[in-house]
Design goal:
The structure is a single chain. It is built from three helices and no strands. With about 100 residues, it is mainly alpha-helical. It has one domain. The radius of gyration is 18 Å and the shape is extended. The N and C termini lie far apart (about 45 Å). The protein binds magnesium ion.
Length: about 100
Amino acid sequence: MSTRGSRIAQRVMANRIGSSTRVIAGEIVKGRVAAHEKHGENSIEAVPASETGRWLAILGEEFGEVCRALTYDQNMNLRDELLDVASVAVAWIAAIDAEED
Ligand SMILES: [Mg+2]
């Protein structure tokens, strides 16, 4: 592939990655807001980043649900469970960032 062709292919791929990431990021925002409204003061939005054991337990629970979605007797949606893992990871990152501000 020519250099120009390679640059175009890279730009197309970057646009595809950006587009899909923006869609999923929007789903994460909606999911975090809905979970916070549902759980109120007990939502993960109130967990300090310093409580790493608690964060790890929450992330581990969601990861376990991804694994469960892959078992033969699953009735869980793999995409939804992966979105839960991403949402918890983003919330944890946000908590870390908030403590650094
Ligand atoms: Mg889940």
